[in-house]
Amino acid sequence: MAQPCQIRIQQFLQESLADAQRRNPKYSLRSFARRLGMSPALLSLILSGKRQASKRVLDEVFSKLGMDAAEYQKLAEIYQNFETVKNPYEVMARAERELTSDQFRAVSEWHHFAILALAETKDFDPSPSSIAARLGITQRQVEHAIERLVRLKMLKLDAKENLRLTGERFHTADEVSDVAVRKSQHEDLDLAHQSLDHDPLDRRDITSLTMAVDVTKMKQAKTLIRKFRKDMELLLNTPRRKQEVYKLCVQLFPISKTIGEIKK
After folding, report:
1. Number of domain units in the chain
2. Phi and psi (nearest 5°) for 154?
3. Which residue, 19, 82, 166, 253, is the most exposed by fewest CB within 10 angstroms?
4. Is 101 exposed, middle or buried (0-12, 13-18, 19+ CB in 10 A)?
5. Range of the domain at 66
6. 133: domain CATH number?
7. What mean pLDDT is reported for the chain?
8. Co-location of 74 and 197 in the same domain
9. Looking at the predicted structure, is the pLDDT value of residue 176 above 60?
């Protein structure tokens, strides 16, 4: 008899496949298997309950289909080799592709990643005019952005030229000082200013904290900030219930000069 863990993974896969086929009736089992990085034969056996899902299959389901992190933790603990993956953040990181500096420069303007995120939302309309209206940019900007994203394999076009996500996640290297990165961060601040002026309070949260700090602990502080960002993503990134695109900006910066700077 199948264990509840196996039944839940089977159900989640069945629901995800059905959801994809509702959006695209021609979406095949083979395409679904390719997205998960497994053979169609193995996936068919798991879906029918004739084969148990391995720990690797659970990891792929979590990282590529967006299983809730708490549910992943609960199911993963059942596997004897759970100690090899201590938390869901490690699985998320495995599914991410690091962009080179040149790649990031090509898509550093904020609306490129906004288009990728918008494609994950419910009832997404991939037409450039709809995307432009949702993001408040021009249709020409959308068309140029899509061309770049497809060229860099961050988006793909199916046989009917419809936009499709690749299933990959993307990030830039940490601690990079680059003109494109600084430009992107300036854009983030500008977007925050616009939200402050135009979005109602119940749709935003912009707060600050002024404090005296031990600057020798900055490395630890940055690690906590990165974990906080992942925690927020896991909380808000509910599969099949994403409606809007948000940007999370966590800012920690000095507002006082060092004594050495004052004496110069």
Report:
1. 2
2. -95, -20
3. 253
4. middle
5. 4-94
6. 1.10.10.10
7. 83
8. no
9. no
